[in-house]
Amino acid sequence: MADLATTKLHADAVTDDYIAQVSRKRLYSGLMLLLFVVLMVSGFQVASTRNGGSFWGGIDNFFDYPGEVVSEAWANLHALPGFMLKYIPALLETFNIAALSTLLGAAVAIVLSLLSTRGLARFPKLIPVFRRIMDASRAIPEIVVALVLIFIMGGGPVPAMIAIAIHTAGALGKLFSEVNENADLKPIDGLASVGASWSQRMLLGVVPQVAPNWLSYALLRLEINIRASAILGFVGAGGLGYELKNAISWGPGRFDEAAAMFIILFLTIMVVDQTSSYFRDRLVHGAAGRA
Amino acid sequence: MAMLDSSADLPLQATHLFRRKRMMTFAALAAIVAYLAYTFFAFDIPGLWQRANADNAKTLIADTYSYKTHVTMNNRNGEIVVAIEGDRKARYGAEQEPEWVTRGGENTEIDLGDGHLITFSPELITYDVPDFGLMTFEVSRSQGVIQTYPVDADQLPDWINASKNRVSVKTDAGRLSVTRNRSEVFRYFNGWELFFFALDSPYYGKSAGEVVALAFQGEAGAIFHDFWHNPLWRHGAVAWAIFETILMAFLGTLGAAIIALPLAFMAARNFAPFYAVRFAVRRLFDFVRGVDALIWTIILTRAFGLGPLTGALAILITDSGTFGKIFSEALENVDGKQIEGVQSTGAKPLQRYRFGVLPQITPVLISQILYFLESNTRSATVIGAITGGGIGLMLVQAIITQKDWEEVSYYIVLIILMVMFMDWFSGWLRKRLIQGK
Predict the structure, then answer these.
(1) Hey, are the CB atoms on A148 and B399 less than 8 Å from each other?
(2) Fold held by A78-285
(3) What is the pLDDT of residue A3?
(4) Dihedral sign, CA of B282, B285, B286, B287?
(5) Which residues of B, range 213-272, sit inside 8 Å of A by Cβ?
(6) Is the Cβ pair B293, A93 closer than 8 Å?
(7) Whether the model pTM is above 0.95
(8) Interface confidence (ipTM) of the complex
(9) Which domains does chain B have, with CATH numbers?
């Protein structure tokens, strides 16, 4: 009987302990939540006081500008297709910046990722070096590289392309090396046993295994890079962003042309997103019609 | 895999497949090469070398590790001013002038080191270059700059650039330029000038040990004030700008998450029974994501004016679409059994969500939010350059003025440190929150 009594005592202690722990956890969670709310509210207030216009003053105007753009575009509806055609070359430049930087960035990322994956690396001792290179190129914001290169090379698409390519190399390199880590090493051992060189082992043993995932990540990056390329255009790197800046910031603004540019940019982003998500699905899950 | 039937011509089929595959590979390679060739001309790469300005690159690199002190004489009244980078805020006071500038009654001697000597006297400037000789420049209102050289005027070395009204001499020791209006000497020094204290601060020129000693004698506040309000480097303003950039990223990311979470429930198949609601919410997400951050930024700038709030809202709106999509996908993957278990204890819908659903998706939520927080710090730099807030704006302004490249390099270093810090911080927080310390 003594046993039972101690067990009960013990159980009580456990229950008390549990309840105490739960209430302590709730207290901590509550405090965290409170801290979070305070941070958000005060943050918004600080940002609001530093802003040109206040939040509540601006919220009424929120639809004014889209309204103006839409009404001006509506009044000038017949000219809209013409404006869209007029800015196709600029759009093409924005797209080319994104596509070329994805292509070049991915090529560098492939090499960097193979050199920094354990088990595949050509120089295993240098793995940390290549990893740090990827980290660094990921950490440098595109605008920094773009502005410095614009100063040296003059405006145009090339500075933006290089800036985005550097960031892409770092970002994709990290994702690629994660893919590489899951590659089966047996084909590589097999190739090594017949005397294949490092580049042959990579090309014939690793690439066929990982190429679909690489492509899928590269397509995702293309979506991101189109947005980045449009934004960099706004700070002077050419393409649609630059035209958009000129259209809206000079004098009263040419809102009908801006509307045309909004539309083609929106459509391009939608088309690229949809196409890339279709192909990514196919690459990762296999074609629907495959046997 | 294409279908292979087990008939006799299997080798033939295999060869065929191999050939097709090889063709495909070559076609893809050819397409890439063709595209590269096209962009090579579309981007005008051949013309790029002509447009590229090597001098700008040199200035940029030299300015990152060195600065120059200007000694300027106004040729009209003979007044001489010594200032770092020619900046009004960094002008030497009368007693502070560096010892390589010696003022006499009429003549001022400037010693550039290594035997390079320059003298300024009213309307006459001389420059003695070792192994070359003495050059004199006389400034005349009517005849421009009258120049005499130790060699014939048509055999001038290429480091002297002379015309009737202006002369520029560039040597390893420094640089002299003379025009009708003013004469100016640049002497180069390594390092970032006046990084800690401006010239008018009492702590300028004191060693680190002396400053620390003064700090312990109760002057810490004044020392910090002089450092923080340094008129050239503006440390206080820069720190505030970095805070603003991080604030934009923080408000934008978390605000987007708060808005996206309830909407994600409406877009998830297993929580929103009505197809119409699901469809509408999903298209809303797509629309918000599709209208690029750039367009949102422009619209918001018109409504809210320039500033960090606008930047935060631009990030908030764009990311609420992305978060909505990610969260709703996570919600569709939750395990129904846990929710049933909570329901069996008599939980109401809100409690079911709180105790059955949220714990399952919290890891996805936290890791995505932290990942975006890190990447938005970078976006906030760019958006800040457009909406006029934070370190991005300071960087753009410093680059546009094209004067102080050491400030540009300082901002670049700070931005990279900021991004690396946020990367580390979000990784640290993710580990603590998901794995529990």
Answers:
(1) yes
(2) MetI-like fold (1.10.3720)
(3) 63
(4) positive
(5) 244, 247-248, 250-251, 254-255
(6) no
(7) no
(8) 0.78
(9) 68-190 (no CATH), 235-435 (1.10.3720.10)
